[in-house]
TrEMBL record:
It comes from Amycolatopsis rifamycinica. The lineage of its organism: Bacteria, Bacillati, Actinomycetota, Actinomycetes, Pseudonocardiales. PROSITE patterns: ABC_TRANSPORTER_2 (PS50893). This is ABC transporter ATP-binding protein. GO terms for molecular function: ATP binding; ATP hydrolysis activity. Residues 5-228 form the ABC transporter domain. It comes from the Bacteria. Keywords: ATP-binding, Nucleotide-binding, Transport. SUPFAM superfamilies: P-loop containing nucleoside triphosphate hydrolases. Gene3D superfamilies: P-loop containing nucleotide triphosphate hydrolases.
Length: 294
């Protein structure tokens, strides 16, 4: 199995604070991988390490087996808030991209994509809507014909229809080219429809990673009579538990063999799994931390 992204013991710190620590990660080539986690978990830091904008302080990251900087011609990157030169038109940005990427630049692909989406080529991109700007940024990234496409919260500011259009364009484009995608987002429902690989970051660490199908098949919710801390047949780990006086609801990772029939099993969504793992992510700040020193 070819790996598009591979990280081992990867770490990055700002001053004395680790933004990403001990990160071990494998994204197989051809996958559409979602990178999720609470604010400040380290998603942007990880993407910047993968594209070579940041240097690691520990460990290493490889893109198709190479240092990120030497893999750069193979990487397309759409940064958070899709920064574009706002005074330039889409047509000018396509021409400019060609000058910056002489080796491999598919201007026709970008122009066709923008024409299909009805995006005016002659209007400064600063005057386009947020959704149109996101589409221009995606078209420019795709014109590079990248083997790996990194997108940092590309759909955060889009309305639901524009989000769906953006994700459909992305899926269509990568299905044609076999491009691997690593996309950070907080919009779990959108990701469930389109991603086949998941990486969950929590407080600078990888909390969960793997193929979406395997993660869904490997977890379920159980309901049953109120439980204590005793182990349950067929359950490898209770990820999250909530209880009423009489009943317990557990998100569990399956182990070997069937689950104790005392419990009723329910299938889970990607959102159930992610939120279950992140549920203990609340950072409980002691009240004293808010006190103003005398
Ligand atoms: N340039 C910087 N200087 C100092 N600390 C930083 C810098 N960039 C990020 N950090 C810190 O590193 C941690 C990870 O930040 P990062 O932006 O990678 O998180 P994120 O998961 O992308 O967050 P969000 O979902 O809010 O975009 C945070 O604690 C953040 O405050």
């Amino acid at each position: 199995m070819e790996l598009a992204v591979e990280a081992a013991a990867l770490g990055k710190r700002y001053g004395r604070t680790w933004a990403l620590r001990d990160c071990a990660l494998e994204v197989p080539a051809g996958r559409i991988a979602a990178l999720v986690g609470p604010n400040g978990a380290g998603k942007t830091t990880l993407l910047h390490l993968v594209v070579g904008l940041l240097e690691p302080d520990a460990g290493e990251v490889r893109v198709f087996g190479r240092e990120p900087r030497s893999a750069l011609p193979d990487i397309g990157f759409v940064a958070q808030d899709t920064p574009l030169y706002r005074d330039f038109t889409a047509a000018e940005l396509v021409t400019m991209g060609g000058k910056l990427n002489r080796r491999r630049w598919d201007a026709a692909l970008a122009r066709d994509r923008l024409a299909v989406l009805g995006i005016p080529p002659d209007k400064p991109v600063g005057k386009l809507s947020g959704g149109q700007r996101a589409q221009v940024a995606l078209a420019l990234a795709l014109a590079k014909r990248p083997r790996l496409l990194l997108l940092d919260e590309p759909i955060a500011s889009l309305d639901p229809l524009a989000r769906r259009e953006f994700m459909q364009t992305l899926m269509g484009a990568v299905a044609e080219s076999g491009t691997t995608v690593l996309l950070s987002s907080h919009l779990l429902a959108d990701l469930e429809r389109s991603c086949d690989h998941l990486v969950v970051l929590q407080r600078s660490h990888v909390r969960l990673a793997g193929s979406v199908d395997e993660l869904l098949a490997g977890h379920c919710t159980l309901t049953g009579p109120r439980a204590g801390s005793e182990s349950i047949a067929g359950v490898a780990e209770v990820v999250r538990a909530s209880h009423t006086e009489r009943q317990s609801t557990l998100l569990v990772r399956r182990g070997a063999g069937p689950i104790d029939p005392l419990w009723t099993e329910h299938a889970v969504t990607l959102e159930d799994v992610v939120l279950g793992y992140l549920a203990d992510a609340e950072i409980r700040v002691p009240a004293s931390a808010w006190e103003v020193p005398a």
